[in-house]
Write a structure and sequence with these properties.
heterodimer; A: alpha/beta; Rossmann fold; 2 domains; B: alpha+beta; 2 helices; 3 strands; globular
C-alpha cells in the first residue's frame, strides 16, 4: 500500500481535496492554518487501496511552527505527493513545488482553484508547465469536484522530475521566474466591489467599526437561532417526553433504580435541571439546553471561517494581542474555543513559539467558556436578567486581559510578529457550511453524552457514600470563607472537571442569590478546564508547562473569586 | 532565515508591493503583493527595503 501525501501552501484547499478523494470528512475553512495535524484516509485506485494523508500547509520545507513540522514529517514518509497548488498564486506556490521535486519523490501537480484563476484573468499553459516541471499537471476545482476524474486517472503517471537537482534559494527563484514567464499570462483587472470590501475591513479606521458590528450581529444571531430551536423544537419535544418518564418513574417505584434513572422528584414532579437522573437531567441538559446553542454557534462559526473574515480580525487584534505575548493569530484559538476548548487548544499549534502557545492555551482554559457552559449560563442566569449574564462575561474579559498582560511578563521566550496571508473573501457554500456544522454537532454528541452520563452517575454515587458532605467540609474555608458560596458548591466544582454544563446545573438546588450564581458560574470557567481540554493541553504543552499552567489557574481562581466576592457581595 | 521566510511568502527583490494599511502604535502593516494581501508585524515590514517603482 502506497502512502500518498497532499502537500501545498496554507489555504490552497488540501482538506477539501482530502474529503473528496477519501470520502472521509475533515474540517476545511477559508483561512491559513485550519489543518494543524495530519488526517489519514483510504482511496481505491485500480485494484489497490491507497492511503491518503492530508498534511498541514507549509510555504517551504523549512518548518517555522509545529503544524509545519508535521507537514515535513509527512513529506518524509510519502511514497507519492499530490502537490496542491493555488492557481491564482502560481509563482509563490512553485517555491515549495521545486523544493519537493528536488527531493526526487514522484509528484503530480493539482492546479487548484482553476475557476478562480480563470475569473481573475490568469491563463496558464498546462502543456508548457508539464514540460518545465517534468510531472503531470491537472487543473482542479476541489469545491465542485471538477478535474478529479483526470487527477485520479493520472496519479499513475506521477514521477520524480529527472533534471531538477537541489539548488539554493536564489537559483530556485530564478528558475521560477523563467517558468512563470514561459507559462503564465495575466490580464490586469479593475478593482471590484469585493476588493473594496476587503480593504475597508482591514484598514483600522473602517475595520474596527465593521468588526464590532459583525461580532455583535454574530452574537445576536447565535442567541436568536438558539432560542428558536428551544422554543419551537426542543421544549415541545420534552413536553411530549415528560409523561413518558413520569410513567417510568411510577412503574419503577421508589428505590435505587428510580434514584438513578429519574432522580429526585421536586414537589412530586420532574425538574429537568435538579432531578439529576440519567433519563431526566442526563438527557435534558445536552439536548434541550446545550444542543440548540451548539447548532447555532457552529453554523455561525462555519460562515465566519469560510468567508475569510477571521484573518482580517486577526490583523485588527494584532496590536492588542502583542501585549499578551502573542500576535493577532491568537484570536483564532479564542474563536474556536468559544465552541469547545479542545479545538481551540489545537489551533494554537499555528503559533510559532512555546511562549505563545503556552499563553494562548492557558488563557483559553481560564477565560474562554465553551458553548456548552455558555448555554447553561444563559439558561440559569437569564431569568434573573441580562445584567447578570453580562457580569459573568465582563469578568471573564477582564481575567483574559489581565492574565495575558501578566503571563507575557512572567514567561520567558520569544514572541515573534504576525506574518499572515489574507485570503480573498469567498461566498460560503450552503452545503459545505451545513456539512461542517453537522460534523461538529456529531462530535459534540459523541463527546458530551458519555461524559454527562458518567457525571450524573458519579453525582449519585458520591451523594450515596457521603463523599459530598466530607468534601464540602474540607474546602469550606475556601469556598465558603473566601468565595462567599455555600460549601455544597464544592461538588459542582468537582463535577465541572467532567462537564461544565452539568456543573452549572448542580448550582441550582443550592438556593443561591443571583450574585452568588454569578460568582460560581464565573469560577467554574476560571478554576480549571474540563478533562478533555486538560488532556489535550497536557499533550500539547508537556508536563512541566502543564504544572505551571495549573498553578496559574489555581492562583487566578483564588484571586478572582475573592475579588468578585468583595465587589459583588460587598462582604 | 528571515529573507527565506519572506521569499517563501512572496516578498522578494524586484517585486512591486502596495501598502494597504498601517496600524497605529507600532501595529502591523498590510501589504498587497501579486494581488494578495499579507499582514506583517511592523519590524518585519520595516526590514523590507523599497525603492521607486520601475
Amino acid at each position: 500500500m502506497k502512502k500518498i501525501v497532499l502537500m501545498g501552501n496554507p489555504n490552497v484547499g488540501k482538506s477539501v481535496f482530502f474529503s473528496r478523494l477519501t470520502g472521509a470528512n475533515v474540517i476545511a475553512s477559508n483561512y491559513p492554518g485550519t489543518t494543524v495535524d495530519f488526517s489519514k484516509g483510504m482511496m481505491c485506485l485500480g485494484k489497490e487501496g491507497q492511503e491518503i494523508i492530508d498534511a498541514p500547509g507549509t510555504y517551504s520545507l523549512e518548518p517555522s511552527n509545529k503544524a509545519e513540522e508535521v507537514a515535513l514529517e509527512m513529506f518524509r514518509q510519502a511514497d507519492l505527493i499530490i502537490n496542491v497548488v493555488d492557481a491564482t498564486n502560481l509563482e509563490r506556490n512553485l517555491y515549495l513545488t521545486l523544493q519537493i521535486l528536488e527531493q526526487k519523490k514522484p509528484v503530480i501537480l493539482a492546479l487548484n482553484m482553476w475557476d478562480e484563476a480563470r475569473h481573475t484573468g490568469i491563463v496558464i499553459d498546462l502543456k508548457k508547465l508539464e514540460y518545465d516541471l517534468q510531472i503531470p499537471v491537472v487543473p482542479t476545482v476541489a469545491l465542485s469536484g471538477e478535474g478529479f476524474h483526470d487527477l485520479i486517472c493520472r496519479i499513475d503517471e506521477a514521477r520524480p522530475a529527472e533534471t531538477i537537482e537541489p539548488m539554493n534559494e536564489s537559483d530556485r527563484w530564478i528558475k521560477i521566474g523563467v517558468i512563470i514567464r514561459n507559462v503564465q499570462q495575466v490580464t490586469h483587472r479593475h478593482h471590484t466591489l469585493r476588493d473594496w470590501i476587503s480593504e475597508a475591513s482591514i484598514r483600522p479606521l473602517t475595520g474596527f467599526p465593521i468588526a464590532v458590528a459583525v461580532i455583535v450581529a454574530a452574537l445576536w444571531l447565535v442567541i436568536f437561532i438558539g432560542e428558536i430551536f428551544i422554543t419551537y423544537l426542543f421544549d415541545p419535544l420534552f413536553d411530549l417526553y415528560t409523561p413518558v418518564v413520569m410513567g417510568i418513574s411510577t412503574w419503577l417505584g421508589p428505590g435505587f433504580l428510580q434514584e438513578l434513572l429519574i432522580g429526585q422528584l421536586i414537589n412530586g414532579q420532574i425538574d429537568y435541571l435538579q432531578s439529576m437522573g440519567l433519563l431526566t437531567t442526563g438527557i435534558y441538559v445536552p439536548f434541550a439546553m446545550v444542543l440548540p446553542y451548539i447548532v447555532a454557534f457552529y453554523s455561525v462559526l462555519a460562515v465566519f471561517e469560510d468567508s475569510g473574515y477571521l484573518p482580517r480580525l486577526a490583523t485588527l487584534t494584532d496590536t492588542i494581542f502583542h501585549r499578551f505575548g502573542m500576535h493577532g493569530f491568537g484570536i483564532i484559538p479564542v474563536f474556536l474555543g468559544f465552541g469547545c476548548n479542545v479545538p481551540g487548544v489545537l489551533a494554537a499549534r499555528s503559533l510559532e513559539t512555546k511562549k505563545q502557545r503556552f499563553i494562548a492555551t492557558t488563557l483559553l482554559a481560564i477565560s474562554v467558556p465553551c458553548m456548552a457552559k455558555n448555554a447553561m449560563v444563559f439558561g440559569i442566569l437569564g431569568p434573573y436578567g441580562i445584567g447578570y449574564i453580562f457580569l459573568v462575561f465582563a469578568t471573564l474579559f477582564i481575567v483574559f486581559i489581565s492574565s495575558g498582560l501578566i503571563l507575557n511578563r512572567l514567561m520567558t521566550g520569544d514572541s515573534p510578529e504576525i506574518c499572515l496571508e489574507i485570503p480573498p473573501y469567498r461566498k460560503p457554500n450552503t452545503a459545505t457550511v451545513l456539512k461542517k456544522t453537522w460534523m461538529r454537532i456529531r462530535w459534540f454528541l459523541q463527546e458530551a453524552i458519555p461524559f454527562l452520563f458518567v457525571g450524573v452517575l458519579l453525582i449519585n454515587l458520591l451523594y450515596t457514600v457521603g463523599f459530598v458532605g466530607w468534601l464540602g467540609g474540607v474546602f469550606a474555608p475556601v469556598v465558603q470563607g473566601w468565595f462567599g458560596l455555600p460549601k455544597e458548591a464544592t461538588t459542582a466544582l468537582l463535577i465541572g472537571f467532567l462537564r461544565k454544563d452539568l456543573a452549572v446545573g448542580m448550582l441550582l438546588p443550592l438556593g443561591m442569590t443571583p450574585m452568588q450564581l454569578v460568582i460560581a458560574t464565573t469560577l467554574l470557567t476560571v478554576y480549571f478546564p474540563c478533562v478533555g481540554t486538560f488532556a489535550v493541553m497536557f499533550k500539547e504543552l508537556g508536563i512541566r508547562d502543564m504544572i505551571k499552567a495549573t498553578a496559574f489557574m489555581a492562583g487566578t481562581a483564588f484571586v478572582v473569586g475573592g475579588v468578585m466576592r468583595l465587589v459583588l457581595l460587598g462582604i | 532565515m528571515f529573507q527565506k521566510k519572506m521569499g517563501a511568502i512572496g516578498i522578494r527583490e524586484q517585486k512591486t508591493l502596495r501598502i494597504v494599511a498601517k496600524y497605529p502604535f507600532n501595529g502591523p502593516v498590510v501589504i498587497e503583493i501579486d494581488g494578495r494581501e499579507l499582514t506583517l508585524g511592523r519590524h518585519m515590514a520595516e526590514h523590507i527595503i523599497t525603492g521607486d517603482p520601475v
